[in-house]
Write a sequence for this structure.
């Protein structure tokens, strides 16, 4: 069980983020919930590449014969983090503009797109 | 050449349909020409029939066109409209519902 | 902010930018590369924004957006560089000249002049991220005022 | 140069998108021309790729390899990112190539000058690049990256009108839901990568054995892509997004939704083709029916023309899901009616892209002239804008599937195909079409009939030109559908079923 504890933690993070999106009403808290899910998914991606006793996958001055951790998931995680930065920045920018127009960040009050 | 679509049981040929439509059009024109000519423009015959009452500006606007149909389905349509509540929490809720349904369908 | 913070940030700015450049330059050898190096450099710029207030860099918005576009164009152009063979083909690696020295497989002491177009791409991404992130921080700082995005 | 056509269709708009702000500093007119030139170049690439691929051979282009066709690294493992263009992705490329330039033609004149027009044109070009990327890529993670590129670009365009309070709200909601669906899609990709150690679609599709983890990944793919494709219970963002974006930019957003639907078909047919059970097919068909009915009824209640057309577009997604869903249910046996239904679903993608694109351009014209889109205030535009009225009428009839027009050509295929599976599906589909016809008749009556209203502004000619081209395309597709079905839609639908050809093209490398 101890072996896949990190995967359990990732799933808890994702569930927590999803709960934040469902329960919270403030726009900024929604963005925080999104970043929770993002970190959960990224953590999951990185732990996929773990090799027991492996060293970071870099050849420069690498000790001889040491097993290396898989590099691909780390590259995937990097891209996913870059995308997460872009989405969060865009969402926060729109949240600011909404606040300037409506004066509130409460999703219950920002509802004129109904019906 | 490339006009026909085979649909398993039959086919759909647009030009044959057009020919048939033209035939029907000619037929209706013939019937129409036998009709009475003296339609009095500008008189009360031109006003839209608003269930008999006299309405001074009888313009049937867009929302009124299906007033009856929408009214009959009022309970259902109101509930449907309220589903689109505009609150982002509900939308994420529906996403969670679909996620649960697909998980149940596939994992169980 | 107080004078102390301003002088410290004035000292730290070149250090931050230099370290960011170092991370970008050694992207293909040590952990780092375009995005991380750019982020480090952008943090140095963010420090300036915090210390001297957003108004100080207000005039630089045009420069930042030009830098960002240039970074993007350079990255895509590097992709086209390999078009002789296939897109993004690493034509410089192992062909001598700029960043071309072939590298033996397996652990090695790390040689700056290797990995073909990779370092150039790292620089392109580095500039783009530097400009992009600092523009984001700058605009958020300016949001308080009447300036529109 | 022609051997690199697939990657050029993606790389050139990326390069062009980044270069756009630089050119905008030089001169406004140059920026507009540059955006149009890129769009035309990409559609030319898409046309060339389609002409080669539709004749039967799947075009595999490997990035960064010694030669484009070298798919397998020495160890027999597809290590590099590759573009795998089969008939269906080429067909999607045609749709995007057709709608893209027309949308730019209309968008350039439609956007007001001072409000960050350069940024939104850059985003539109990047959206176009993202769409082409999603259509052509053969790599799961690469699909996720382009999925996110289109999400961010689309939400940037939706939130263009920051001076109103509705557009940023729509953009925030859409962005959150897009990001959410993208993340769950990535989680699915991570599960598959964890299990098979590969990201290439063909390789994973060969290795897949239908274990519990694969089904978990499929559930994540399904819910993620269904959200992005605006299927029934998750379609709430679509009317906000299409309604609040500048109407001239909406056609490319519709194509973006359709490419996400294509991604869903790619995952269901090619990735999980071997291990799929019938339950998933019935789920897609059920959600398709639900989308149709819900969107049609909601369209009935709308008073804003933009949102009404948006609901119309969402209900058309339901038709595509029904058509290809029937093919999915009958996948193992592959009876003839399944192919007919899939052809209907795929052909409807093209018809719907044209029809809804034309409708949104008409909404753009109406808004340009009258400034408002509320049906209660509109009226009598038919006298002063006869050509816009004609286009709107044509497109509404096509959307509702009235015989001579293109909508009917694809709906007849869907009706015939789904009838064989179970007549109830066809009954619901036809009733929804009738309801849609009623809804759009009301919209037409509200906006264009009624007493004459004096109108001072003229509709800009590029908008009219784009509408004219789409209207002609609509009629041509309606009158001569056989040619398109036999040449483009047939191979595309066949490509969905021929999973082994896809695997062979990539893996025998």
């Amino acid at each position: 069980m101890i072996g896949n504890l990190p995967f359990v933690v990732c799933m808890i993070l994702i569930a927590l983020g999803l709960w934040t999106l469902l329960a919270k009403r403030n726009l900024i808290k929604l963005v925080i919930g999104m970043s929770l899910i993002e970190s959960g998914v990224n953590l999951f991606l990185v732990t996929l590449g773990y090799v027991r006793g492996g060293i970071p996958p870099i050849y420069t001055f690498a000790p001889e014969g040491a097993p290396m951790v898989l590099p691909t998931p780390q590259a995937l995680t990097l891209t996913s983090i870059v995308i997460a930065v872009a989405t969060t920045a865009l969402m926060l920018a729109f949240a600011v503009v909404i606040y300037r127009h409506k004066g509130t960040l409460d999703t219950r009050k920002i509802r004129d797109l109904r019906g | 050449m490339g006009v026909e679509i085979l649909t398993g049981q039959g086919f759909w040929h647009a030009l044959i349909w057009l020919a048939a439509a033209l035939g029907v059009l000619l037929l209706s024109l013939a019937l129409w020409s036998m009709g009475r000519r003296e339609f009095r423009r500008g008189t009360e015959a031109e006003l839209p029939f608003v269930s008999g009452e006299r309405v001074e500006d009888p313009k049937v606007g867009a929302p009124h066109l299906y007033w009856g149909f929408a009214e009959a389905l009022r309970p259902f349509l109101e509930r449907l409209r309220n589903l689109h509540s505009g609150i982002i929490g509900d939308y994420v809720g529906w996403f969670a519902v679909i996620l649960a349904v697909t998980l149940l369908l596939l994992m169980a | 902010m107080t004078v102390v913070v301003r002088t410290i940030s004035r000292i730290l700015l070149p250090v931050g930018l230099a370290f960011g450049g170092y991370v970008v330059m050694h992207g293909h050898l040590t952990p780092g590369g375009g995005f991380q190096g750019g982020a480090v450099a952008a943090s140095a710029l963010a420090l300036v924004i915090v210390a001297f207030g957003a108004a100080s860099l207000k005039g630089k918005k045009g420069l930042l957006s030009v830098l960002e576009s240039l970074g993007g164009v350079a990255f895509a152009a590097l992709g086209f560089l390999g078009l002789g063979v296939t897109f993004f083909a690493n034509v410089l690696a192992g062909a001598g000249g700029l960043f071309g020295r072939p590298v033996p497989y397996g652990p090695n002491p790390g040689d700056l002049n290797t990995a073909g177009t990779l370092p150039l791409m790292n620089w392109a991404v580095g500039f783009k991220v530097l400009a992009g992130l600092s523009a984001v921080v700058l605009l958020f700082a300016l949001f308080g005022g009447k300036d529109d995005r | 140069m022609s051997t690199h056509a697939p990657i050029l269709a993606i790389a050139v708009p990326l390069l062009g998108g980044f270069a756009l702000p630089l050119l905008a500093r030089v001169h406004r007119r140059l920026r507009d021309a540059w955006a149009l030139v890129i769009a035309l170049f990409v559609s030319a690439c898409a046309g060339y790729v389609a002409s080669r691929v539709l004749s039967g051979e799947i075009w595999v282009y490997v990035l960064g390899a010694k030669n484009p066709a070298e798919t397998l690294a020495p160890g027999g493992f597809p290590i590099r990112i590759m573009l795998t263009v089969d008939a269906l992705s080429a067909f999607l490329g045609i749709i995007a190539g057709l709608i893209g330039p027309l949308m730019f033609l209309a968008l350039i004149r439609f956007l007001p000058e001072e409000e960050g027009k350069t940024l939104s044109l850059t985003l539109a070009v990047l959206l176009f690049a993202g769409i082409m990327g999603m259509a052509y890529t053969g790599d799961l993670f690469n699909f996720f990256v382009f999925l996110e590129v289109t999400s961010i670009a689309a939400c940037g365009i939706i939130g263009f009108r920051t001076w109103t309070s509705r557009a940023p709200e729509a953009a925030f909601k859409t962005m959150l839901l897009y990001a959410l669906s993208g993340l769950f899609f990535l989680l699915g990709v991570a599960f598959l990568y964890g299990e098979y150690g590969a990201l290439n679609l063909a390789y994973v599709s060969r290795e897949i054995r239908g274990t519990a983890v694969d089904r978990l990944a499929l559930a994540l793919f399904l819910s993620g892509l269904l959200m992005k494709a605006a299927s029934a219970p998750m379609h709430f963002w679509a009317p906000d997004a299409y309604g609040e974006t500048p109407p001239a930019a909406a056609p490319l957003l519709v194509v973006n939704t359709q490419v996400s639907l294509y991604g869903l078909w790619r995952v269901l047919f090619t990735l999980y083709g071997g291990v799929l059970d019938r339950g998933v097919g019935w789920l897609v068909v059920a959600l398709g029916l639900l989308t149709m009915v819900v969107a049609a009824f909601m369209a009935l209640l709308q008073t804003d023309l933009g949102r009404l057309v948006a609901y119309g577009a969402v209900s058309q997604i339901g038709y595509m899901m029904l058509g290809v869903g029937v093919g999915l249910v009958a996948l193992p046996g592959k009876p003839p009616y399944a192919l007919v239904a899939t052809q209907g679903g795929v052909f409807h993608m093209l018809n719907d892209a044209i029809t809804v694109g034309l409708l949104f351009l008409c909404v753009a014209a109406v808004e340009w002239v009258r400034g408002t889109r509320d049906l209660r205030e509109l009226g009598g535009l038919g006298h002063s804008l006869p050509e816009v009225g004609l286009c709107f009428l044509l497109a509404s009839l096509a959307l509702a599937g009235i015989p001579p027009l293109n909508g009917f050509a694809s709906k007849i295929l869907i009706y015939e195909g789904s009838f064989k599976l179970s007549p109830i599906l066809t009954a619901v589909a036809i009733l929804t079409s009738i309801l849609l016809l009623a809804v759009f008749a009301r919209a037409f009556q509200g906006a264009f009939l009624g007493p004459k209203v004096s109108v001072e502004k003229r509709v800009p000619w590029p908008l009219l030109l784009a509408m004219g081209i789409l209207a002609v395309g609509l009629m041509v597709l309606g009158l001569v559908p056989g040619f398109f079905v036999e040449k483009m839609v047939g191979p595309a639908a066949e490509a969905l079923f021929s999973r082994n050809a896809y695997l062979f093209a990539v893996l025998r490398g």
The radius of gyration of chain D is 22 Å. Chain D touches chain B through 65 residues (CB under 8 Å).
